[in-house]
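Fig. S4 source data, part A: sequence.
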Amino acid sequence: MLTIGQLAAYAGVTVRAVRHYHQVGLLPEPERDASGYRRYGATAVVLLIKIRTLANAGVPLSQLGPMLEADAPDFAAAIQRIDDHLRDEIARLETSRHQIAQLTAGDSAALPPEAVTYLDRLREIGVSERMVQAERDGWILIAARWPDRVREWIPAKLASLGDPRLVRLYLLLSKLFDGEATDDGLMEEAADIMAALAEEAWAAGEVMGTEEARDDLPFDLLDALADESDPRAKRMRDLMRRRGWVSWTRMERVAQPRATGAAGP
């Protein structure tokens, strides 16, 4: 006959675990002997080893009791259910590992490869890292809304970097938003370039499709992202409105008020 300590050591568990199995009703608690000690027989050892084996295999504590009492077919069915659950959990963990690994890839964690190529090109032409990160966050918003269209838009965006005015614009914004320059004249110059590029694109019919143009939320989020990144973004939006454009994130003209007055005869 074994003491609780001897039982625990033989079965490879702790005394605390034995007491816990007593509390939850998995392991019957023997009466005390004349000396006041609880003594455990061979049956208790066998039962405790079964409990330990199932618990180490990942069987939830709540399922141990029914499994210990199940016949062979029911026991096999229960094991199959647990195995199915573990397989699903392994697949979930593998997916999580893949997502975690993606985070080490930087920009590619949330963007299609084409957008990452565009960001890398911005770095090559000297755009500051803060400006590149702001551009990245903007593309994340766009890709979440129009995942299939981003791949269609990127080639034109890459081609547009051949225009020295656009390169100048990115470099101006880098200086402004990196805090290297506060000259309002630079903001005016940036707004002039954006307005000129918007005017040319508008004249050439290079506008978003009707579906995208009617979707206000992404553009509102882009404006909000810019405002949250730098308080001067609102100033830039005001400068664009003075030049006839709704904002610097959306190529849409400011609506002109209708003329009023008496009609002629």
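Fig. S4 source data, part B ends here. The chain has three domains: 1-65, 70-104, 107-242.
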